[in-house]
Amino acid sequence: MLIAFFLSMPGCASWNGRWSGEGRNYVLVRRVSPKAAERFLHKGSCGYNFGDGWYASVNFRQVDGAESRRLRRQSAGFAGYDWMVTSIIADGAIYGPTQPKPETVAAT
């Protein structure tokens, strides 16, 4: 299944409260197995707090082939935040330096 991921920066700690990428479409389309999509698709979005006043949001939804081609044409890339999509697909959330992945407890 094709999933489109949309990046925005609703929390900006810049001097004017704006992100330099504001107004551009940051879209990444990935083919995801239905099993992997079960982990995150029902949420509709995930966020990431960088810990310095900046906050990223990634919204996502299933798309068809025609819409995925249109979105890819209109996209300005993903501003170097592809790792967020990788984390969402793998873990169902965004994990990184300021939001580490919880340790899994081994069954005894």
Question: What's a quick, concise take on this entry?
Answer:
The chain is of the alpha+beta class and 108 residues long. Helices cover 23% and strands 27% of the residues.
- Shape verdict: flat
Radius of gyration: 15 Å
Helix content: 10-25%
Number of strands: 4
The side-by-side strand order for the widest beta sheet comes to 2-1-4-3
First-last Cα distance: 37 Å
Taken as a percent bin, the fraction of beta residues is: 25-35%
When the domains are counted, the total is 1
* Mean pLDDT over the residues: 92
Low-confidence stretches: none
Question: Overview of this structure, please?
Answer:
By secondary structure, the chain is of the alpha+beta class. It has one domain (2-91). It contains three helices and four strands; from the N terminus they run ββαββαα. It has helices at residues 34-38, 65-74, 82-91, and strands at residues 2-11, 27-31, 45-49, 55-63. It has a four-stranded antiparallel sheet with strand order 2-1-4-3. The protein is flat and about 40 Å long. The termini are far apart. The model has no long low-confidence stretch (mean pLDDT 92).
Give the helix/strand layout:
Blueprint: E1 2-11, E2 27-31, H1 34-38, E3 45-49, E4 55-63, H2 65-74, H3 82-91
Provide tags for this entry.
alpha+beta; 3 helices; flat
